[in-house]
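Let us practice reading a record.
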Amino acid sequence: MRSMSVVSGRIPALIAFLLLLAAGVGLSPSASFAQAAPAAAEQAAKAAVNPVDDARQQLDQAKQQLSAIEKQLTPSIGDDDKLVDMMDQVEKVSRAVIQISVDLRPSFDQLKSRLDQLGDPPAEGQPPEAQIVTDERNRLKSERAEINALTGQAESLSSEASRLGTAIMIARRDLFSKKLLARRDISLGLFETAWDMAGREASTLQRTFGSWTSFIWRFKAVYFGGAVMGSLAFALVLMVTVRRLFGSLVRRDPMKETPSYLSRLSVAFWSTTITTLSFAAFLTVSYALFDRLNVLRQDVAPIISACLGMIGLVFFIWRLSKATLAPVDVQWRLVRVSNSGASALVHLFTLMAAVNGLDYVLEAVSTTAGSDLILTVVKSLIASVIIGLLLIALSFSRPILNSSGDPKDPGRPLPHFAAILLRLCGVAIILLCLAGYVSLARFLSTQLIVTGAVVITIYIGILSGRAVSEQNGFPRTAVGGYIGERFNIEAKTLDQLGLAVGFCIYLFALLVGIPLILLSWGFQFSDIERWVYRIFTNITIGSFSISIVGILGGLIIFAIALVISRFFENWLDRNVLGRTYMDAGVRNSVKTGVGYLGIGIAIMIGLSAAGISLSNLALVAGALSLGIGFGLQNIVSNFVSGLILLAERPFKVGDWVVTGTTEGFVRRISVRATEIETFQRQTIIVPNSEFINSSVGNWTHRNKIGRIEIMVGVAYDSDPRRVLEILKEIADAHPKLLHFPEPMVVFANFGDSSLDFELRGYLADVLDGLGVRTEIRLQIYERFKAEGIEIPFPQRDLNINMKSEKIAEAVRAARDVGRWPEEFSGRKRGKRPAADISDLENEGHPDIPEGDGHIEDASDGENQQ
């Protein structure tokens, strides 16, 4: 019967795989993981056994197993199930042989260390050594040679296992090709024979199910009722759980008239995957309950399993079609099709899935009833021809949205390329059936339906993940909005979280879709488990092997160690350093040093857990030193400078520093750069090497005491001694100026227009200097004003020589009208404070009368004498 079943039993396998995903089991790397604890117990029990003798026994056992498998290969060449079991056995033997080599390594290293301690035998002419030492050296060499021999034998067995596994894979591939390309002669006699067999099969099926129902009614009625109630209870719990946890993902909001493209993609993907996984879980649990309660008999169990698989397949295709085409909710439709076209496509796709699934159910019936292969051939031929006709009918449909844009209008035909492709596929399936290649036609029909649906689902998932990963995509989703509101997360953080969510959607779509595709193409669970195990435990690149499981374990342990390190760092800062009298700078240095030490320890622990030998880091150090020599000088210089700054502490967090053109407060010191916040609240990142290689001013290095200076000038007719007394009184009276050292007032200089004085005082906190200067300047202004002491402003003498009569007349006119004539100045002049023209009169011009007068000059804004 299996010669017609290229992928027989795959539909129930798909449902079982979906259950594994829904139950959270995922892809088990191998059954050896489940045997980890027993293996550890066995190793503990064999601790007292000589590891060399134990390895020899295990190698002999592995050799016998490989010989037995090789003998079974030829008789099992036509049974794929047996070949799969043999492949699993070969894999187990191969892993056991490799483990033997690993277990012998410590013993070999121990022998080598002991031989090194004994040293070489005495050379000729040297005193002989004790006989006991010689005997011990010979014994150790003998054991080392035996371990080398066992290691070589293990390598040979590993190669033999690899060769045998390759032979089994070739046999399976040849069997698959042979079954797929098997040809049967199609004639009317074949159909007549199949019709007679169908009648007998129907009678057999009726008797089988009649007997089964009677058996249940008489002996298993209570168990049958319990299985039904358990299935219904599980379905109720599953439905409530899905609605509570994933309701917003799988339900369409009818209130949204124009949902976004992201919302439509998300609902289509999750409503397909979550509901299908949930329904698959329900079907599988129901089957498991009936089987565990012994309600199912051996003659009906395969048929029930095939029926459940068909139901799951039809539900998946129907759910996917409804999610993407949305024949009722037009606004949620992903494809631009008309209403009638959407309904027609949903019905066509569901019908094709039902026909394909029914074909596998009828095959299970034939297998159970013991019918001849001819009947299975005819059933598959009819089912494949029907699917081919449905594909041709689909190519002539008119589902595309009308140019008017109204989905209620009649649709347009499919694009020419798509229509031709569908017709070619349908005609090819029919012609293959008529030519006798029924298995190949059936295989193509299954792949068009199952693989096509899975690929579409993966594609929708990838589009959904990409839309979520776009900028501001995740905050616009229902889940993103809920998370942001529930945990008070800002939009920027949600947007960054969208990248991780999008990646998880990619991963979920691929982890669900790719195994389903492999199963539909004839692979089995053991094949997928074996590949996953190799991917996660042993990826070989040349002579270098990578273990993803080890790397993930190392990353997890590194993360745990880092969290513990951060917790200890914060605890030390809050509860230990916080109760001391250390300033913020010392606390920051200690905290930073402990933090970097914790990171280093976490890295070493993570590398060791990942299986990476720390001795190999010497190669990394060599490569790093080479890189430093070529282009990392600045980075290393800044790193070392940072370590010097943390250890020497020329400044600390909170200090007021000046370096080059940068002045401000130190906010953070790291091993590469230091953050300085200026008085304008600008953060400047300064490389640490600049603090080491250049001068740095620190106003608060040892303490915060600092001096302020205030310059003030008074008029030349002021009493300087009185000015000194007033400034000293103001300084002594200010509460923030220190009395030791006491304030000082000095007569600084004779200025151009003032007598210059300087007040100097010391503050306990130099950071208060700006406010103190302002207060003292206000007090100086008020005292000087009360004492009548003038604070002068710059003045300038202007000398004008007038020698012509016209200029003299202009001066007399200006005295009368208060302004310069325009014809004299050459430009319009406005009102200005008058200038004293006594100097003009004193020049001895006879036309200028005596007396005081002022001239307005608009040429500049200064008072001119």
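A brief commentary: The longest helix spans residues 131-180.
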